Amino acid sequence: MSLLRSRILNSNLPRELIATCTLTPPHREPHHRQFSVLNRPPPNYEGHVPLTKTERVGMAIGSAVLAFLNPRRAETNKDLIATLGETTSQPYFITRLRDTMLLTPSGRRILRLRPRITSSTLSLPHLRSLPKNTLGHTYALWLDREGVSPDTRDAVKYIDDEECAYVMQRYRECHDFYHAITGLPVWREGEVALKGFEAVNLGLPMAGLSVAAVATLKKGERSRFWGVYGPWAVENGVGARCLIDVFWEELLERDVGEVRRELGIEMPVDLRGVRKAERERRRKGREEGERSGDGLGIN
Amino acid sequence: MNPVLSSLRARQLSGVRCRTCARLLRREKRSFATASGAGDPEGDPEIYDVVCVGGGPAGLSLLAALRSHPTTSRLRLALIETQSLTPLRTFAPQPDSYSNRCSSLTPASVGFLDGIGAWRHVRRERVMSYGGMRVWDGVSGESIGFDVDGGGGGVEGVKEEREGTEGSNGGVVAYMNENVNLTSALLRRIEELGGVDILEGEKVEDIAFGEDTPTADLTSWPVITTSSGTRLAARLLVGADGANSPVRTFAGIESRGWDYNRVGLVATLKLSGPGWGGEGKKIAYQRFLPTGPVAMLPLPGNMSTLVWSTTPALAARLKSLSPEDFCAMVNAAFRLRTPDLKFLHTIEGGQKDEVSWRETHTKFSREQVPQDVVAVQPGSIASFPLKFRHADSYISQRIALVGDAAHSVHPLAGQGLNQGQGDVEALTQNIIYNVEHGADIGTRMNLEGYGKERYWRNHVLMGVVDKLHKLYATENLGVVRVRSLGLGIVDRLEGVKGWVMRRAAGERGLF
User: Fold this and answer.
1) A99: closest CA among B262, B484, B139, B479?
2) So what's the ipTM on this one?
3) Is A230 strand, coil or helix?
4) Partner of B289 at 20 to 30 A CA spacing, among A202, B23, B317, B335?
5) At residue B5, does pLDDT exceed 60?
């Protein structure tokens, strides 16, 4: 760009023309300015990587395809889903989510205080010591049961607006609270159900696209999604209030059932229990089959 | 009143009326003089050429215009005004305190007022001309800039500007002026010319057709009875009596339209400075929010006047806020995004703190919005309901309607008062024409010219303003896209912009 400018300045074009051609309109904000990979603007916040439109689209498609073809990678290291989330939510969806937060006192308090959910901000031993019916205890119990920690979240890189980047970060960190309050496990089946819920409730395209992973589920799981968890996700996603502006940190000592009622969330059937019962049934069926087979053999 | 003078006037009047009427008038005049203005409820009514009901800007400028023109200066005129005009006569404002009822006067209106000799009575140090406008969409941020000095299409300032009284011979979009400054100037002009019977502090009790007496047949003349019992028969009765016009009701003219369910919240504000371009380069700002447009119009010095069209509930909330929070809300209205504004209207206090936090997270260019509001003039916050009304007709037999009696328009284009001045100018021309041609100034047929000239001009303008309000009163994403695209295109077409600008400045032509 500067090279181009110096070349223009050295040319013998009228000076006024040069001035009008090289000046950018004053009312166009830098945020909207187009740039190329050669003159990437400085980051808007720490860790920000400004992307061109082409890069954004390419990364969105790439991460979606890879995540679909390689769900195991998508599950174990969350980078693909994170990238997909960031590249597909801009320009419209993340702004809308931020605006939802701006409409409620608790959402505004979150945006103002910018709390982070990590193991250092939330003391897990303290949460475990809370009464059994509290949200904090439920959350800690869920983390222990699934063997996950709140520290596994990547930092947001590709959202241009600094405040929207925080909203994405907040969504990511609250994701475990959504798990805890719905009791859905981190296996693919539970994750897909929760993503369906999020897609409806938060309106993030990444969550909607992730539901495509239902195609990679086993047959029984798939029919369970269409019969039980899918409808649950839609009904609760619509019925619950938007979860992004919930100040979870302030609700830790509240009764979890009460919190669910306030938010309008109905617990789905316990997936762990269902799967266990299913396994039990199959095992029994197999045993019975074997027994009858034995019987046939004897007779 | 001196009887010699009044009989003299009656003789002069005989040129435009029948001998019987003149005789009657002479006799009436005498009795009027002895009864010191209080008419006789039992006897015949006083006969006037023009009786104007309503002493607002339209009514007063009509009387001043008629008195100042040589052809019509000898018509017998009367003004009936409900309120006392003493505050207008004794108008002595504090230099840094402004009325909250301000209007923008287009160069065309100012030219007319100058022509009738009223503009020189206006306190010019309290009038602010501006040469630029910045209008933008509160949802998408798409903006349009008008600049008379720049490419927006020049509009000639009025004579006084060209003489250089304000040190600028550049173009002017409009003049911001307090209504009271204008009406007191008009009244001073009327009293300077003299010869208008002013019945102030008197209500119109009744309007009915007169009787057929031995001396005059007044059966087709409207006779007005005021609260003091004075009776006036009018050759031409002018209704300049506002939106709930009794004259219009008497004439049986329907006024149609709708309420916007919005109120115009006005306030006089003090900004942190005289404007980004300094005293000489004032700019008017208007931002279209989904609840209605909010406009900040320049007054002299650091003062500005606010017109914020919003819903009655939100206006009530704004009025209940502390001065600091109110100022913060006005700043927010020009800077913050709609979700923030929505939320800020729901809290009962603490807006100042919220707004200063949100300003750090909202992208806007400081130079493109009005300077910070630092104070609101105590007692200046008020609101009035916004309506669209248009009378079916401006004229009837011996009746003419001007100003708000004929039409009410949304204030977003600042055209209401100017339309009234346009009506007055046209009606004056019409009366002058009829007097010059020896025609009866009051018959319907002779008034047709006035109605014909004003009705469609006003109707088109009102329609455009109404549609603009409706176009911007939505947050529908598709509509926002289309309107922003349109605004962006118009912003780049200097020719169209110049045309819009000349229309806003009250220039005639095309329609």
Assistant:
1) B139
2) 0.77
3) helix
4) A202
5) no
